[in-house]
User: Which sequence fits this backbone?
């Protein structure tokens, strides 16, 4: 279960050598890595694995990278996921600049791994600071991920490991709606079968601890979809 709590990256690239190289370097940096070799697969894997970052090649067989990017942006669950496009030198770079592709950044091939990792970290930090920072503070809730301590105001919250992981996942992505299945994967990994209703039990416990002094509930229940951390909570 050491898989959980780490940021995940989906690599969409049909060149297997480059894919392997990216995977190797990203895993060494502590990311979980998913792969897709074409656009259709990318859309499926993105929906199933809800990655924190998508690295998307422009030149793909069938669906182009740009079309994949548009479709990802049109879907609720991937609307806000940062996307880095990989492009070849030349014309494409100008087209990427000129088009409203929805990509957060692009990297021109060939690139060095250190440049790639630095750009990935920069995008993650900008778009999802909670994924790379040691402390996540939203409103009066403060999560210290080094010491695994959570405070609401001055009150320390004593959360079980499952409640902690669920809260961490939600706080890393304020506003993003997670299905029960996605939260299950966060906590137990994809190898273990746990009933989806179990999530409701843990959310119930989490809420009880979070709001025990009658504070505002930061967790939103989204009917027939799942749960999210209220993005207006920090304001
Ligand atoms: Ca390619």
Assistant:
């Amino acid at each position: 279960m050491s898989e959980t709590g780490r940021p995940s990256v989906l690599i969409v690239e049909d060149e297997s050598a480059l894919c392997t190289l990216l995977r190797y370097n990203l895993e060494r940096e502590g990311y979980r890595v998913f792969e897709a070799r074409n656009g259709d697969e990318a859309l499926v894997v993105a929906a199933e694995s809800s990655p924190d970052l998508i690295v998307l090649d422009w030149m793909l067989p069938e669906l182009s990278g740009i079309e994949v990017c548009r479709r990802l942006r049109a879907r609720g669950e991937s609307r806000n996921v940062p996307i880095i496009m990989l492009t070849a030198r030349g014309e494409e770079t100008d087209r990427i600049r000129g088009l409203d592709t929805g990509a957060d950044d692009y990297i021109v091939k060939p690139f060095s791994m250190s440049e790639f990792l630095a750009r990935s970290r920069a995008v993650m930090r900008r778009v999802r600071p909670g994924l790379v920072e040691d402390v996540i503070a939203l409103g009066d809730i403060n999560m210290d991920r080094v010491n695994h301590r959570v405070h609401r105001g001055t009150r320390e919250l004593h959360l079980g490991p499952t409640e902690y992981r669920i809260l961490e996942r939600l706080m890393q992505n304020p506003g993003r709606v997670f299905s029960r299945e996605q939260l299950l994967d966060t906590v137990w990994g994809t190898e273990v079968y746990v009933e989806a209703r179990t999530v409701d039990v843990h959310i119930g416990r989490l809420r009880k601890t979070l709001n025990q002094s009658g504070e505002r509930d930061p967790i939103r229940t989204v009917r027939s979809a799942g749960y999210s951390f209220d993005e207006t909570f920090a304001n």
